[in-house]
Amino acid sequence: MARILIEFGRRLRAARKAKGLTQEELAHRARVHINYVGRLERGLENPSLQAIAQLAIALGITPATLVPKGRFTKSDLQR
Hints:
The protein is mainly alpha-helical. Helices cover 65% and strands 0% of the residues. It has helices at 3-18, 23-30, 34-41, 49-59, 63-66, 74-77. The chain is globular.
């Protein structure tokens, strides 16, 4: 799995839990499938910009909060 996707998933899970939401509740608010939320949190999906925005809006945070910061190498982006 790509390190950047794993980090995104960790941030998504932390934000969801901080808001006291289940994966199902977040999926409903963001208008995405519950399985997609689970796959994102496990680093198995590469979210689109639109999906990142939808999730951030549903969580009441900025999209930048979910996007990993710092420098990444090519190997960090490979699955």
